[in-house]
Amino acid sequence: MKFSCLQENLSQGLNTCTHLAGTSRTSLPILNNILLTAQKGFLKISATNLEIAIETKVRAKIEKEGKITIPAQLFNNYIDLLPNEALNFETIKEEISIKSKKQSAKIKGISSDEFPIIPLVETKEKFLIEGIILKNALEKTIFSISSSEVRAELSGALFSFNKPEVNKLTIVGTDSYRLTEKEVSIKNTPSKTIKNLIIPVKTLQEVLRIIKDEGDVDICLSENQVLFVYKETELTSRVINGEYPDYKQTIPQAIRTKALVKKEEFLRTVKAASFFTKLGINDINLKFLAKENQLIISSLNSQIGENKAILPAEIAGENNEIVFNYRYLIDGLTNLSGDEVGLEIVNDDTPGLIKSTTDKHYLYLIMPIKNN
Amino acid sequence: MKFSCLQENLSQGLNTCTHLAGTSRTSLPILNNILLTAQKGFLKISATNLEIAIETKVRAKIEKEGKITIPAQLFNNYIDLLPNEALNFETIKEEISIKSKKQSAKIKGISSDEFPIIPLVETKEKFLIEGIILKNALEKTIFSISSSEVRAELSGALFSFNKPEVNKLTIVGTDSYRLTEKEVSIKNTPSKTIKNLIIPVKTLQEVLRIIKDEGDVDICLSENQVLFVYKETELTSRVINGEYPDYKQTIPQAIRTKALVKKEEFLRTVKAASFFTKLGINDINLKFLAKENQLIISSLNSQIGENKAILPAEIAGENNEIVFNYRYLIDGLTNLSGDEVGLEIVNDDTPGLIKSTTDKHYLYLIMPIKNN
Q1: What does the pLDDT look like over A276-292, one tens digit per residue?
Q2: From chain B, which residues contact A within 8 Å (Cβ)?
Q3: A229-256 as b/e, with b when 16 or more CB fall inside 10 Å?
Q4: N or C: which end of chain A has fewer CB within 10 A?
Q5: pLDDT at B309 over 90
Q6: Which among A106, A265, A300, A330 is the top mutation candidate for probing chain B, defined by the most B β-carbons within 10 Å of its own β-carbon?
Q7: Could you tell me if residue B372 is inside a domain?
Q8: Mean pLDDT in chain A?
């Protein structure tokens, strides 16, 4: 194998793939390596952790085709430090030599024969979405997905095509304590037979890494796999088999109290109140006074002290009260756009809703902490 | 105790002191607290870890004098989140209440009787230095001080008054593998009897935190203690008893090779070479070719690979070669000002010098790794 390419192009490609190497649950040394494949006018860089695989192409002048695997982190770090100029690569046995104007290096690799085969996805369904729209939707949902894998179906986001006729995709995340739902437009009408699927949160975190700015993402589905194609990069992952809970029934309908508050002030107040919550319960009490147009936030820990804040709020409906875990409140408020935030409450026993005032297609639901 | 003050002023004072609370080697709960003392027109905030104490004053309207200790981190975090407005404080037994426009809180404290007494320094000698000059000198020296306390005398910086007649102070740091020396001007002529002293590196890290910008630092010395006074803040610390090594003799005089190289390029090259050094030895070979005006940087790890870079350098003197630990090189280069850096070498057996081209009063010395 012999090729040359620009440092900048190679560095970009490596930054896309390297992160995945070394993230496998198994400790196979080959999974710390990336596979370099020099072929017909480009260099392909591949990394996998056996659950997710990423491949990207880098423009290169290929003198002799070939393959080698080399330690991902070392190679990425080394290339990052070189100046942006033409770099010349050549393999001799299981070693790659790198030459630039002022530097030369040799890095020991492992035969490409040992690198896992990245399965091809047999596309049965396909849809297209604008990269920025997908990125934004993932940022607003995946934080609420369970990090535990005890309930496998909750360790991923639901991609639901319940409105295919209007080219809508709904992305849902939950850890059973809170839930996010975001509806986005897709660029084509998927077939009527397209099924909902659950994509692992770790896969979606990698998808977030590869989407930079403009450009569409092609999402191809097979029975057990999903393929994301964005520019020169392809990301393959398993999907989660399982039944996603019927989450729609948890979204309260008979709202009794609606409040509109300034987001930043509310967030600061919740943070201040968080210091006085009970350890492991993290309970913050919200009281809605309709006539006074006030939201009262309070917390109490008999060991530490207590806190009470009165915020002005536009309140419609009846007086109400609910207790939330402050962490879930902070997560939701942090991910919400707009200067104001809407709160919708039924009672202290029913999930409460946090809504964006600028994005009608997003909702965040928090289970209440029930009073003793 | 009853007082009021502006959130901004209190927050500044707390940020100066809070860090020290909770850093004690002992786990006395009172040391996680700060002492608030309301007296004659100001609020005093004190924190100590029994080795270092910091006290600062905040402008406040005192209605009733008094003292209380409260959890430092909690109080600081809570005050930081309040808007900049007048805050009203009042103690009831061992609890403090805080009231602002929209919020009220109560925090449980501990009686001030349990707070350690901060010793007064009986000043025997005193000198004055510009804050920025002290800050700069400490930043360039304390990184080289030993983090181990096996040799107590190396766990601090030497403050040496070897040129009192010209108002000079020399600050020295070493961990016995490398050494820094920085000479600075002081603003007065200390008495002839002033003795050198060793100040713990942890104390100097705290001093760095309190110096913000303009303003002088008063340094007062007693037999066993040192007091730094900067604006409204006083920092008291023990000094280290012990004999500082006679470091002057390790500074090589009979330099055989001098080289001048571009700093950023050299630093990047050392970082790139660092990936190929032997684990635990971190050895990078520097070769000076006088006729060619080249500095050759190389490293080799038979498990990983090898690296060689040729940098242009202005070389005076003879050909030479030396092996350094790359970490010490990176530390030194990172702390050096100017676009270029000077290297001065005797041979592969004698410490090498790294010099700033913009600061004649600073030197950095590295022990070589000797060839087998």
Answers
A1: 999 999 999 999 999 99
A2: 71, 74, 77-78, 81-82, 95, 102-108, 268-269, 271-272, 275-276, 303-311
A3: bbbbbbbbbbbbeeebbebeeeebeebb
A4: C
A5: yes
A6: A106
A7: no
A8: 95
Residue B155 lies in domain: 125-247
Residues in chain B: 372
Give CA–CA dist B365/B354, Å, rounded.
6
Alpha-carbon span A269 to B23, nearest angstrom: 29
Please give the tally of structural domains in chain B. Answer: 3
Give tens-digit pLDDT for B47-73.
Answer: 999 999 999 999 999 999 999 999 999
Q: Is the pLDDT score of A164 beyond 70?
A: no
**What is the average per-residue pLDDT within B259-266?**
98
Query: How high is the pLDDT of residue B164?
Result: 66
Q: What is the ipTM of this complex?
A: 0.90
3-state helix, strand, coil in chain B (%, to 5): 25, 45, 35
Q: Tell me the shortest Cα–Cα distance from B264 to chain A, in angstroms.
A: 11
Q: Do B103 and A307 touch (CB under 8 A)?
A: yes
Point out the domain boundary residue: B92, B114, B136: B114
Contact assignment for B304 to A74 by CB distance below 8 Å? yes
Asked if A81's CB is within 8 angstroms of B271's CB, the reply is yes
